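Sanity check record (used in CI):
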Amino acid sequence: MQIDLSGKTALVTGATGELGRVMALTLARCGADLALHYNSNAAKAQELLAAIGALGRRAVTVQADITDGNSVAELKRSVSEQLGTVDIVVANAVVQYEWTSVLNQSADDYRSQFESCVMQSVYLAKAFIPEMIAKRGGRFIGINTECAMQNFPNQSAYVAGKRGMDGVYRVLAKEVGEHQITVNQVAPGWTISERDRVNGTERSEDYERGVPLKRRGTDQEIANVVAFLASDLASFITGAYVPVSGGNVMPAI
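Expected output for SDR family oxidoreductase:
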């Protein structure tokens, strides 16, 4: 048994980010063609495009502001013209900001998280799910976070955005399930990425002490779950929030 995405086309938003790059490459290694969304890092997008091309997969880069509905609609038009129908959407992009307390966090930071977590997902659904409905199948995957269950100090804007996103995904799963479209969320813990490997910051004893597996996860481990949910192996899983955190958070039944 293996993950086979041959003949599928996937869109990854925030594909030039630390986790996005590994997700895109992993989907390509499983056989998918890729639409690589980026906001401002065109050079990294071109580098990723070349890496996926070297794997023998088709790929295109598309710039867009995922917090703007018109920009997402243009992204959809461009991807459709170049690659055809998208089978897999991975909503990974998020606006970065400086975390602080509720009393000190600016209102703009709350807006940015709502727009990049909730509205990005809404815009992507409106753009891509109608074609999935027409062909009776598709995968819609959002990248959430363990923080949505932790609710630690200074996380309020991020948690608010991701918990709002969670509501959209759960409702959407019920709305489009009859069309054999699955809607799921992957919730990484504090993940080791290429930046950590370069900077030598892979270890955090304080964090690891509280994780049942006693380590941080890796970007590849996150991408593996995304690929699984994108595949036919996960055809009867929908509405799920899947922590990939070594047991650091555990949703209750």
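Strands lie at 9-12, 33-38, 59-63, 88-91, 138-143, 181-188, 241-244. If this sentence no longer matches the regenerated tokens, the check is flagged for review.
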